[in-house]
């Protein structure tokens, strides 16, 4: 299907060793044989591969074929982590905001100054995927402008900790009983599950309810309880 074009193989280091052998043969001989076919097919394909891991380290551990690496490594591009590309953060965040507005049928308008500061100061251990997920969540949680509150990102050592763990650390245990602490954490976990289900289903509450195996009325009640804004504002 990629004949005359480009074949992109993402997360190449996750490819099984047996499949690497087949790819090597195809790259070397420029032919493939369809399953069940008796004749090889000549191919002309540009091959691009990508991975967020180190190829040479994988080769040293026996996880990746060295001969395949040298076949593919004619021209390499190393992309620095997002934390080293601070000038890209706001641009990417704006693109993700536009995309999510279209997906969720919303009109969230830009970022507050505090939100921009939080975005550029965050180390983003999950790189662009984490940034995209953060923006999508923020759009779901507001129908006006994204502030630092909707981003819900923290700095320092706990930046990548689970939200439930962070919430638990912030509860003054000397003032709450175990029952009250559990109730608070249950609300946090429930809200997170609902947010994720809504994002996965592009804001469709009926589909999100089916995903979580709850009825639609319960989903509506929970959305209202946690202040999840899903309605599109008129201009």
Task: Provide a short characterization of the protein structure.
This protein is mainly alpha-helical and 235 residues long. The chain contains eleven helices and four strands. It has helices at 17-29, 55-60, 66-72, 86-104, 113-121, 127-141, 148-151, 163-170, 178-200, 205-212, 216-225; strands at residues 6-9, 31-32, 41-42, 46-49.
Question: What is the name of the CATH class of the largest domain?
Answer: Mainly Alpha
From the spread of the alpha carbons, the general shape counts as elongated
Q: Report, as a whole number of angstroms, the end-to-end distance.
A: 45 Å
* Unreliable runs: 155-161
Topology:
Blueprint: E1 6-9, H1 17-29, E2 31-32, E3 41-42, E4 46-49, H2 55-60, H3 66-72, H4 86-104, H5 113-121, H6 127-141, H7 148-151, H8 163-170, H9 178-200, H10 205-212, H11 216-225
Parallel strand pairs: 1-4
Antiparallel strand pairs: 2-3
Helix pairs in contact: 1-3, 4-5, 4-6, 8-9, 9-10, 10-11
């Amino acid at each position: 299907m990629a004949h005359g074009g480009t074949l992109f193989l993402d997360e190449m280091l996750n490819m099984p060793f047996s499949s690497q052998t087949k790819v090597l043969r195809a790259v070397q001989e420029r032919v493939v044989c369809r399953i069940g076919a008796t004749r090889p097919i000549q191919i002309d394909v540009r091959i691009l591969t990508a991975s967020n891991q180190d190829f040479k380290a994988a080769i040293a551990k026996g996880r990746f074929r060295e001969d395949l690496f040298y076949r593919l490594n004619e021209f390499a591009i190393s992309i620095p982590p997002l934390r080293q590309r601070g000038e890209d953060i706001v641009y990417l965040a704006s693109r993700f905001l536009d995309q999510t507005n279209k997906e969720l049928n919303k009109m969230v308008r830009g970022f507050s100054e505090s939100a921009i500061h939080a975005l550029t100061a965050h180390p983003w251990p999950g790189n662009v995927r984490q940034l995209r997920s953060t923006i999508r969540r923020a759009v779901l949680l507001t129908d006006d402008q994204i502030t630092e509150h909707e981003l819900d990102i923290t700095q320092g050592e706990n930046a990548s900790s689970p939200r439930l763990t962070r919430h638990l650390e912030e509860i003054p245990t000397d003032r709450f009983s175990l029952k009250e602490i559990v109730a608070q954490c249950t609300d946090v976990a429930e809200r997170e599950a609902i947010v994720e289900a809504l994002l996965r289903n592009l804001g469709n509450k009926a589909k999100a309810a089916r995903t979580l195996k709850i009825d639609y009325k319960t989903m509506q009640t929970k959305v209202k309880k946690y202040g999840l804004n899903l309605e599109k504002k008129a201009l």
